[in-house]
């Protein structure tokens, strides 16, 4: 269980994190979403005390972060943090000396999965290979806690898929996983929970299925593509959106009633859709200007 | 995690040994007249004290001290990797220092051994003898590089790698200039200040002697050793405290 409570971090007068709180129970994968500079990496760094938070704390399995916590915690930073002059093999040797829980056979398997040559020096690795080595080091200890800051950065699509499977596998074995990515589709596939950061604040958090179920999209297509003046008067529609000839209504209650009303208003076709994670994310950051 | 430092110190010692080997070859060639001239050295009745050889080793180790002091603060890019391992930051730092101290001790032995080889090559091996000041000299030979290491580490502990490299490189000219300035006539206040600084200068201690010298600390080797060890024992923990409290 990862429990982050009220993390606040300021650099001078700039507040980078403003009371960030989130929980990731055992066996759960929490996707951390946010635009660049929203505070995702700082959340990881403050949780692990790589940066000093001004307030708040992170607890792991109910305990504050201690040296012993790292025995069961795997971390992949957003920028691979390796020794350029050491080989892949030497990095593994370093990990094997540091962790009692290090599993050499597992590390070999992972090296094969990521097609890494043990004799290669870290400075000769591509960005994707550096990420891969960080993942090997994180997963070789069979961690119960995983903090993964953009763990698929630079990986090819096959290795991205392999990584997602590793993450899902770890969670199915009981690990708590906090996983940030800009690839919303990846998070949608792997995560069961989500937290969206905006300007250092959590603006949306919870179980993805519950969040998706909380609101439906009713999509109606009109022959002439004309928006009917009587449509917006419908009860329970929070927001309307135009997409060509289609009109989308976001409704929290009784989508069937909205669908029926749209059909009566002359829609050629009407369908009720679930919101996807991208919809949730876009809604959560709605109103933010492009950076 | 001291494994990284062991690898790094091993690499530095290999480079140091290669440099020593070159010096050894050059000295041997010169002593045997291969350089177009011959130097005759006699050690007289006093011979060569083992303590002097160890002190020479201390000079060698100071080159290593300047290099090693940059290793730990130069880690900043790897801190997220290093500091998320189940080893406390302080334990990690002290293990680094222990490995570096062993590396400096190896540097002393290697340099002293090189000197012994040169003396043996001159057929004067019997001139080497144990002298009463050997324990104090040995303590000074390790204490001075450790003091150098501690001062440099303290100055570099919060810096980024570029700054760390600069501090290591500047330590030699800085300590030499301080020792030199302590010898020249300066306004009294400035002179007092420079002499005060010179009392933090490991070079002034190791190059000093029991007799009053210019710009160098005049005291018996155990006293100078004690001063160097004090500097080391104050600066190294202070540097570690700063390093462990930085952001990774």
Account of the 3D structure:
The complex is a heterodimer of chains A (291) and B (248). With 291 residues, chain A is of the alpha/beta class. Chain A folds into 2 domains: 209 residues, 3-Layer(aba) Sandwich (Rossmann fold); 59 residues, 2-Layer Sandwich (Alpha-Beta Plaits), CATH 3.30.70. Helix content of chain A is 31%, strand content 31%. Chain A has 9 helices and 14 strands. In chain A, strands 6-7-8-3-9-10 form a 6-stranded mixed β-sheet, sandwiched between helices. In chain A, strands 2-1-4-5 form a 4-stranded antiparallel β-sheet, covered by helices on one side. Chain A has a 4-stranded antiparallel β-sheet with strand order 12-13-11-14, covered by helices on one side. The two termini of chain A are 34 Å apart. In chain A, 42% of the residues are buried. The model of chain A has no long low-confidence stretch (mean pLDDT 91). Chain B has 248 residues and is mostly helical. In chain B, strands 1-2 form a two-stranded parallel ribbon. In chain B, helix 4 crosses helix 5. The longest helix of chain B is centred in the middle third of the chain and has 33 residues. At the A-B interface, helix 2 of A face helix 1 and helix 3 of B.
Beta fraction of chain B? under 5%
Mean model confidence by pLDDT of chain B? 88
Which runs of chain B of at least 5 residues are low in confidence (pLDDT < 50)? none
**Proportion in helices of chain A:** 25-40%
Which stretches of chain A of 5+ consecutive residues score pLDDT under 50?
Answer: none
As for the CATH topology of the largest domain in chain A, it is Rossmann fold
Reading the helices and strands of chain B in chain order gives HEHHHEHHHHH
CATH homologous superfamily (4th level) name of the largest domain in chain A: P-loop containing nucleotide triphosphate hydrolases
Distance, first to last CA of chain A: 34 Å
Q: Major β-sheet of chain A, in short?
A: 6 strands, mixed
CATH class of the largest domain in chain A: Alpha Beta
Computed structural class of chain B = mainly alpha
Number of helices of chain B: 9
């Amino acid at each position: 269980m990862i429990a982050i409570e009220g993390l606040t971090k300021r650099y001078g007068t700039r507040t980078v994190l403003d009371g960030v709180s989130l929980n990731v129970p055992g066996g759960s994968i929490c996707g951390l979403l946010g635009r660049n500079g929203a505070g995702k990496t700082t959340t990881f760094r403050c949780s692990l005390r790589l940066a000093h938070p001004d307030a708040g704390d992170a607890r792991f399995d109910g305990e504050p972060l201690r040296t012993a916590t790292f025995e069961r915690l795997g971390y992949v930073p957003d920028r691979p943090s390796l020794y350029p002059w050491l080989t892949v093999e030497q990095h593994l040797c370093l990990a094997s000396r540091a962790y009692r829980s290090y599993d050499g056979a597992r590390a070999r398997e992972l090296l094969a999965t990521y097609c890494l040559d043990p004799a290669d020096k870290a400075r000769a690795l591509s960005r994707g290979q550096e990420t891969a080595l960080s993942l090997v080091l994180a997963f070789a200890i069979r961690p119960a806690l995983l903090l993964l800051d953009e763990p698929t950065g630079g990986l090819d699509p096959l290795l991205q898929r392999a990584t997602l499977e590793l993450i899902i596998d770890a969670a199915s074995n009981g690990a708590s996983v906090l996983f940030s990515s800009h690839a919303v589709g990846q998070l949608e596939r792997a995560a069961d929970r989500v937290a969206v950061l905006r300007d250092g604040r959590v603006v949306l958090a919870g179980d993805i299925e519950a969040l998706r179920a909380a609101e439906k999209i009713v999509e109606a297509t009109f022959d002439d593509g004309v928006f009917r003046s009587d449509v917006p008067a419908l009860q329970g529609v929070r927001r309307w959106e135009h997409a060509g000839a289609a009109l989308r209504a976001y409704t929290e209650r009784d989508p069937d009633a909205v669908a029926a009303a749209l059909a009566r208003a002359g829609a050629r076709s009407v369908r009720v859709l679930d919101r996807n994670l991208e919809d949730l994310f876009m809604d959560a950051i709605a109103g933010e200007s492009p950076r | 995690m001291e494994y990284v430092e062991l690898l790094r110190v091993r690499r530095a010692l290999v480079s140091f040994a290669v440099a020593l080997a070159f010096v050894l070859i050059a000295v041997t060639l010169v002593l045997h007249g291969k350089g177009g001239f011959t130097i005759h050295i006699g050690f007289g009745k006093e011979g060569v004290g083992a303590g002097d050889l160890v002190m020479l080793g201390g000079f060698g180790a100071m080159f290593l001290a300047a290099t090693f002091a940059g290793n730990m603060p130069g880690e900043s890019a790897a801190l997220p990797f290093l500091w998320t391992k189940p080893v406390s930051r302080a334990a990690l730092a002290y293990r680094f220092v222990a490995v570096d101290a062993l590396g400096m001790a190896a540097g002393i032995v290697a340099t002293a051994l090189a000197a012994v080889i040169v003396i043996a090559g001159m057929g004067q091996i019997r001139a080497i003898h144990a002298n009463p000041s050997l324990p104090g000299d040995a303590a000074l030979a390790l204490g001075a590089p450790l003091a150098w290491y501690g001062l440099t580490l303290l100055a570099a502990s919060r810096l980024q790698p570029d700054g760390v490299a600069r501090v290591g490189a500047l330590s030699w000219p800085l300590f030499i200039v301080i020792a030199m300035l302590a010898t020249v006539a300066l306004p009294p206040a400035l002179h007092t200040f420079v002499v005060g600084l010179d009392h933090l200068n490991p070079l002034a201690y190791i190059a000093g002697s029991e007799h009053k010298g210019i710009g160098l600390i005049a005291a018996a080797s155990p006293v100078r050793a004690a001063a160097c060890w004090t500097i080391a024992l104050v600066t190294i923990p202070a540097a570690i405290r700063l390093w462990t409290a930085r952001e990774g």
